[in-house]
Design a protein that fits this description.
With about 70 residues, the chain is of the alpha+beta class. The protein has a single domain, classed as OB fold (Dihydrolipoamide Acetyltransferase, E2P) (Beta Barrel), CATH 2.40.50. It has helices at about 40-45, 50-70, and strands spanning about 5-15, 20-25, 35-40. It has a three-stranded antiparallel β-sheet. Strand 1 and strand 2 form a beta hairpin. InterPro entries: Chromo-like_dom_sf. This is Chromo domain-containing protein.
Length: about 70
């Protein structure tokens, strides 16, 4: 069973103009060599809780930036 440990960044991949998540997998390091780009559908299917947590922190970070720079 595949398990995602963490989603580290949300990146725009220019090829085909689609969004992908950089994912850190259980049992692997967080180096660029060990993380992979995965489509949102795959991340949602295998790590819905990790994705929800990541998106919540991303939204909170954006709100903090807006509050600090009105």
């Amino acid at each position: 069973m595949l398990r995602i440990y963490d989603t580290t960044t949300f990146s725009r991949v220019l090829k085909k103009g689609k969004w992908y998540y950089h994912c850190q997998w259980v049992g692997y390091s967080d180096t660029r060599q060990d993380t992979t780009l995965e489509p949102p559908k795959k991340v949602m299917r295998i790590a819905k809780d990790v994705l929800a947590e990541f998106e919540a922190s991303r939204v909170a970070g954006n709100q903090n930036n807006l509050a600090a720079n009105p």
